[in-house]
Task: inverse folding
């Protein structure tokens, strides 16, 4: 796969993770679906910051 295709797939993955977090999915559930540890999900996406913004109604 080309670098451009790989970047696009990573971007799509991050957008889907953001959507799942907005739907109140836990990092453990996302990690289980991706077959990675939940800490890898939290490192790649600032879950606490996203949840805090959601509570304020900014997202």
Result:
């Amino acid at each position: 796969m080309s670098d451009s295709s790989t970047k696009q797939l990573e971007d799509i993955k991050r957008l889907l993770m953001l959507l799942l977090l907005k739907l109140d999915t836990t990092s453990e559930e996302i990690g289980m679906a991706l077959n990675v540890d939940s800490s890898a999900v939290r490192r790649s996406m600032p879950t606490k910051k996203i949840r805090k913004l959601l509570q304020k109604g900014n997202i």
Q: What stands out?
A: Residues 3-22 form the longest helix (20 residues). Residues 18 and 54 are 11 Å apart (CA to CA). The two ends are 33 Å apart (CA to CA). The helical segments are 3-22, 27-34, 38-44, 47-56.
